[in-house]
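To whoever picks this up:

The nightly regression suite flagged Leucine rich repeat as changed. Nothing in the input moved, so I suspect the structure step. Input below, exactly as stored in the fixture:
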Amino acid sequence: MAEDDNNNTKRKEPDDDEIQKLLSLRNIPSDIADLTALTKLDLPDCKLTSLPSSLPDALPNLSILFLSKNEFTEVPPVIGACKNLQMVAFKGNKLKSIHPDALQPQMRWLILTDNQIEFLPDTIGRCTKLQKFMLSGNHLTQLPDAISKCTNLELIRLSSNRLEKPPMKLLELPNLCWVAVSGNPFIQNAPLAAEAMKLKLPTIDDIPEGEGEVLGKGAGGITRKVTRSSNNQVVAVKTYVGAMTSDGSPEEERRMALTVANKVPDNDFLIALRGETKESGSLVMEYLDNYHALAGPPSLESCSRDVYSCPHDYMAETQAVSMVTGLFDVLTQLHAHGICHGDFYAHNILVCKDDRNKVKLSDFGAAFFYDSTADYGRMLQRTELRAFGHFAKEVQELFVKSDEKDKLEKLVQACREDSASFAQVNKLWKELLN
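Regenerated output under the current build:
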């Protein structure tokens, strides 16, 4: 504490008791020499309901703050006062509202999954740098028109909310690429939605639950390699974590996986679906031996872009072009049926190490049905075309050096056209190849 020379009253320094108590939750030493060096703070499941008002002064360079599984009922205004805070997570709290002052221009990545938020304040329009916005599992009935000012927004998750109408202002955003809106009322009237409710996955009862080598982990769950006890068949089993993921509900993912298998059967670029387990409803799929993701998921730094580590000679040009063509065909077929993948990224594309002509599109956790004849449906196609354009550009820069480079550049540009559809651009791509 320090004395105020003017009135002899005491004022709190940035390292006051409240801040020290907060830091102690993560065993950060109370005598740390320079709190200004702290850039990331992760405080999950600490029963927190508020943050100290001195946070911006105490931790002036804080850029990442994770507060998942606490007991906040409002996103507090002090969040907006932290001038360098770019990534914030309040997943799985008790949020009902967002204080208007919590939303400021510095925010790039905001995670509010699995709460009870009923509306977004108009100050969301201040978030002109916002790139990723996670809102699945809330109580939103509409989005404010101010969302139209979030012109850098690229990825949004709105699954399992209460949206009664398509969020048209959102879908008009020029850089939006990855959208998830399953489990909302306006989607229930999509042509395939009623049909999908009647489809049933085969039940497989010879899968040992929770056992097997871990093949991968994601926001939605864990995928393991498991051997069936009845016939020694090796399969991949995806077990879901909780009732709500950042992409949406596991029930929606199971329904989408079954519908995709029904509408686009025996496609070499899709993973074959076997059924679901009797106990937990885990998805049972074909096991892919010696496959790995083409890229890693976005990092805290890259935010919305995948991270590639493969060398430039990892894939031959002919293989790269074949991969682009096959995956574009799959997406074109899906959109013809009114199905949007919602998470078309290289980290969801699996490539066989032994034969790089073998490629699979995975993870339908963000997928959803939509009405392809409606205005919002055409806008949704534009968003996923942009996502494919990013992927095609990455492939072009990494693996292609010959004349095919110009063809891929034309594909990228076509994917960015406002009036484009998958069918139109796919036709153009085939003409370029011929």
